[in-house]
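Input.
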Amino acid sequence: MHSYHLKDLIFILEKQGPLKYLRKPALEPMGKYSLIRTPFYEFYFNLKAEIKFIRGITSTWPHPAAFLKRTDGNDWVFYSVGIGGAPVRSWLGEYYLPCLGYPSNPVWDCDPYQDPRVMNALGAWAQLFANLSGLNPADLPPYLQKFLENVLQNHEGALLEKTRKFHQLIKGRLSVLPPDARHVDYQVIPLNLTKGCLYHCKFCAVKSDNFLARLPRAEINEQALRLKDFLGPDLGAYQGIFLGDHDGLAADGEVILQAAELALETFETAHPVFFMFGSVDSFLTRKSSFWQSLDQLPAKTYINLGLESVDLDTLKLLGKPLSPGQVREGFSKMLAINGQYENITVTANFLLGENLGENHLPCLSAFLSADKNKADKKTTIYFSPLTTSQNRPLLLEQFFELKKISNYQSYIYLIQRL
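Output.
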């Protein structure tokens, strides 16, 4: 690690952060990172000298723990600690409330991009970039010269081009990541095993209309190598690996296991965690041999299922091609898998929203509160607000009522893209 003071700027280069994501109420990037501190802000950079975080350090900043994060999809996301003292951890299971700058499915009104303090931070980054370009490299030590050269190469146009190449590599922007990716702050390496979706539900605003396609092994192998090359020295900042896309579990079982082993070998991730989406059909058809092999991998695996409802009329209204019996069967198998395998956690999504079947909430309440002996600390239920819902206070009220009676950990599913 190097540090250097230049007038009112402090440079801290290649500081070692934690090797895994730490759930804590303070910003601490994973892996190695560099930092430029001004009298008003801290600017964090990855090892490719790309801007990743901005945090205000004066009393005018919304909160000492709040910050801006730039994702690999080149979205700026403001991380708030809450709205009006609301218990954010009871909503999301995390210390932070991500306020997204694109349409999603929140149950709160959060638009920090109209807040001058947040917009001033982005403006301060533009000004710092301009100031850095005016420095005389000859006055600086060689290690700082190289760092600033790399930072200045990552101007706005260059970052946009890198994002274009990233999306081209993974065959398009990922419209949604699994809710369990919150365990690594949605910082994942996306390795696609499938494209498209097995179901084409009427309510869904984020998944593909394309038919499910299973990618050949050669394409998966090439994708992994290209991702390693693209991420380069910044691989140490990733703990999560998303085996996508919308139904990665629908890939051939051997392909999933081989892709997981390939990812572990290629990315050399410390404390690796796999994330997947699974449909009820792909989940129910998996045999015990698959689960045993998956559990033996040196990694944790989270699989998220879209169950949506246990009410027949609601399932029909949603265009979900499942019966309540299939939903219940999937739920029962989820509990069994969670109880049997140490390294595998299966989670489930149910919907909240207006204009669902009149029996949706009563059925869901009875279902989640039944069989007290089935309650466990491992199973997590996510409630996903419909994007068409307008009455956000009502959604939050519904969520807290369900959370209160649920036998399982229960959180809001905030849809994030990449």
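The two ends are 31 Å apart (CA to CA).
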